[in-house]
Design goal:
The chain is an all-alpha fold and 482 residues long. It is 75% helix and 0% strand. Helix 1 runs antiparallel to helix 9 (199-205). It is globular and about 70 Å long.
Length: 482
């Protein structure tokens, strides 16, 4: 059956975008400060800290498709997605504060156990709201530009939140110079409240257009999850997403170490990260414009190329470099990261449309969950443990002057690993084929099939476009997974 769409107004676009104040801010604070908090404030060994991230991310990744599966099947007066925005308010505030409680013990086991538990609780709260949230754009509108505006609004608020998170938390922490542990806890309480309250606005600003037949809802999580890999566009999208976001994870996790130990300028954290975030935010409308006119794949590739350039420009920085030089290079990196963080989320609703042609169902939840599961498995099994083991393996000593060879190895990892991931992302993006034109063909075919048309009657042009996007022959379209 064809869905009847409500008009998406500016207030709805803004109200939806406000939700990523939590996602953008929380991810940045945890990504930039938590590893440093564990090793420098509470005294956890770097390898254990990296392992803690890894175990937590793997567990969290498993919960994401489960949450998507649950939200696809939730029935409530508040909707199958939006109800979780209300249920998540209190857990969001509490779990973020618990993460920054400074545990005073010499036992590495107790430190590992507590912070792993707190990290899992935080990720559970994130999953409960962010997985249904990521599924909404595909259901609020089928229009190319409207979806891009929703995704851009989301990432603009994420960027604003990241900008605040790049500056204010460190200011709160630094207000307690004699007790950094207390500073981290105060910061956690303040931002837990800031992250929780906007979900009331998100709930009131959004809705769900459900286009699928309830009688066709599958009940096997593993089978439903496995079928998403039939979708060629999703496989390519997944590669683009993982490359960009894993590079971002490594950059954010090591940036504080880079300023502190490579450049010897820890006091420039707010200037450097603030510059990066301001430019990242300012460039989002530019990349959205490119995506609307040309394609999201092209917009993504341009941004990642600029990001690679920025990473290599850091080769010219050193302890004697001026603040202006550091800020300018951070600005170049921010120009690139803008596309890296925006485009994967802008692409997701269109990948879900491709899946609907394959299955005849609207499975936003399982896709939103799978998207984060696969990335977090990469995070948990590779990126975050690699950071911890790398620090320990190169001879890093917390709160000490590092040996020259340690700094050289650190810098090679800090520059080289993100650059290789970004180049891989650009290569993968050359295979991405969803454009405004091809999506128009896909959208028209979906409307025809929803109205009762036969897939056998698709025109040759439509068949060629849809086969390219799905990776499936026409005979395999419109078949619910069973």
């Amino acid at each position: 059956m064809e869905q009847v769409e409500r008009p998406v107004k500016l207030r709805n676009i803004i109200g939806f975008g406000i939700g990523d104040i939590y996602g953008g801010g929380a991810f940045l604070i945890v990504g930039m400060l938590f590893m440093f908090f564990l090793t420098e404030v509470v005294g956890m060994k770097p390898a254990l800290a990296g392992l803690m991230f890894g175990v937590g991310k793997v567990w969290d990744g498993i919960s994401d498709p489960l949450m998507g599966f649950i939200s696809d099947r939730t029935k409530s007066k508040a909707g199958r997605r939006r109800v979780y925005f209300l249920w998540g308010i209190v857990p969001i505030a509490i779990t973020f504060a618990l993460l920054w409680v400074p545990i005073r013990t010499d036992s590495q086991f107790l430190l590992f156990a507590y912070y792993l538990f707190a990290y899992i609780l935080l990720d559970a709260a994130l999953t409960m709201v962010m997985t249904p949230y990521s599924a909404l754009p595909a259901e609020m509108s089928s229009d190319w530009k409207t979806r891009n505006r929703l995704s851009t609004s989301r990432l603009l608020f994420s960027g604003l939140s990241s900008l605040v998170a790049a500056v204010i938390p460190k200011m709160i922490i630094d207000a307690y110079p004699s007790d950094p542990g207390q500073g981290h806890l105060v910061m956690g309480i303040v931002f837990g409240i800031i992250f929780a309250l906007p979900w009331v606005i998100v709930y009131r600003s959004t809705w769900e257009n459900v286009a699928r037949r309830e009688s066709e809802v599958g009940d096997n999580l593993f089978k439903e999850f496995g079928t998403i890999f039939r979708n060629r566009s999703f496989r390519i999208h997944f590669g683009m997403y993982v490359c960009a976001y894993t590079a971002m994870d490594i950059l954010m996790a090591l940036f504080t170490y880079y300023l502190t130990y490579s450049l010897g300028k820890p006091g420039l954290y707010s200037i450097a990260m603030g510059t990066l975030m301001i430019v990242q935010l300012a460039m989002m409308p530019v990349y959205s414009f490119i995506a609307n006119r040309k394609s999201q794949g092209l917009s993504y590739s341009i941004g990642l190329a600029v990001w690679v350039l920025g990473m290599f420009l850091t080769l010219g920085l050193g302890p004697q470099s001026s603040t202006l030089s550091l800020a300018l290079i951070c600005a170049v990196i921010g120009m690139g990261t803008s596309a890296g963080v925006l485009m994967p989320y802008a692409i997701l609703p269109f990948v879900i449309d491709v899946d609907e042609l394959i299955t005849g169902e609207q499975r936003s939840g399982i896709y939103a969950g799978a998207m984060t599961l696969l990335r977090k498995l990469v995070q948990g099994l590779f990126a975050l443990p690699a950071i911890g083991f790398m620090l320990q393996g190169i001879g890093f000593v917390p709160n000490a002057v590092q040996a020259p060879e340690t700094l050289q190895r650190f810098f090679a990892f800090f520059i080289g690993t993100p650059a290789l991931l970004l180049i891989a992302g650009i290569i993968v993006a050359t295979r991405f084929r969803i454009t405004p034109k091809s999506h128009g063909v896909l959208k028209a075919e979906l409307a025809r099939l929803r109205a009762g048309g036969r897939k056998e009657d698709a025109t040759p042009e439509t068949e060629a476009v849809c086969t390219l996007l799905t990776g499936q022959a026409k005979a395999d379209w419109w078949k619910p997974p069973r």
